[in-house]
Structures are given as C-alpha cells and as structure tokens.
Amino acid sequence: QVQLVESGGGLVQPGGSLRLSCAASGLHFGQYVIGWFRQAPGKAREGVLSFSEPNGSTYFMDAVRGRFTISRDDPENTVYLQMNSLNTEDSAVYFCATVVADGLIKFRKEDYDYWGRGTPVTVSS
After folding, report:
1. What pLDDT does residue 36 have?
2. Sign of the four-CA dihedral 56, 80, 62, 3
3. Is the separation of the CB atoms in 72 and 79 below 8 Å?
4. Given CA atoms 58, 96, 17, 42 in this order, what sign does their dihedral have?
5. How far apart are the first and last CA of the chain?
6. Which of 26, 58, 103, 123 fits as disulfide partner to 2, beta carbons 3.0 to 4.6 Å?
7. How distant, in Å, are the alpha carbons of 35, 51, 59, 76 from that of 24?
8. Angle (CA) 118 6 76, round 5°
9. What is the DSSP letter of 125?
10. Is 23 exposed, middle or buried, given 0-12, 13-18 or 19+ CB atoms closer than 10 A?
C-alpha cells in the first residue's frame, strides 16, 4: 500500500525558511515523478514544482523559482522541499504527490496517482 506523509509545516515569519518532508512507503521515489502542490484557503490546488527521473529535471512555478529547492534522501525514501525567503502568499497547505516516472515533468494534479494529506504552512508576522 502506497503512503505519502508530509511533515515540517508550521508558522514562520516573512523572510524565514521551512523545510518540508515527504516520506514514502510502498514505493521507491527513484522510479517516480515527485510533485509538490499547495492550496490556499478558497483557491485551487496549484503545482509548486515537479521533479522527474531519470534525468533529474526539475521545474518550478514562477512564484517560487529561486527560493524553493527539492532534494531527496534515497535511503530514507524521503524528499524535502526547502523553502526560503517565504512571504505571506506562500501560506497554504502543501501536498506531495507522485506517479510512476515516464521522463516527463507533470504540473497538473490530475496526472498524479498518490497524494499525502498535506502539511500547513503559515507565513505571518
């Protein structure tokens, strides 16, 4: 059974940083496309980034490019979303998602098969 569990969300001041984690069981991330999405209250879920094997290409939404990075811990089967220079518009529930890799990045939520339950991020002074 595939399970994704996000953690690391919380309250942070503008300009601060957070690192979110997404731990997987029932699959190995090395064979999957990894996506991070976020959903703010009253808004649609939007793609933050997509990371695709085997070439390791990553695509970021414009609003986070240069501030967010993704990394992976293969032995722990965990991916991390490092978020720097956070602003109030980054406040949302953040979700990780995954689907079997086909070499393409994916930004549509419909393209993903497995989802975590999300972790909330609040950027506020």
Report:
1. 96
2. positive
3. yes
4. positive
5. 40
6. 26
7. 13, 15, 21, 9
8. 160
9. -
10. middle
Question: Taking a C-beta distance cutoff of 8 angstroms, is the pair 71, 121 a contact?
Answer: no
d(CA 1, CA 123): 34
Residue type present at position 77: N
Residues in the chain: 125
CB 40 within 8 A of CB 99: no
Q: Report the C-alpha gap between 50 and 97 in whole angstroms.
A: 9
Per-residue pLDDT of the chain (125 residues; tens, 9 = 90+): 899 999 999 999 999 999 999 999 998 888 889 999 999 999 999 999 998 866 778 899 999 999 999 998 888 899 999 999 999 999 999 999 999 988 788 889 999 999 999 999 999 99
Closest residue by Cα to residue 69 from 104, 36, 94, 105 = 36
Q: What's the CA gap between 41 and 74, in Å, rounded? A: 33
pLDDT at 54: 64
Residue with tokens 């989802």: 115
Token pair for residue 54? 């085997």
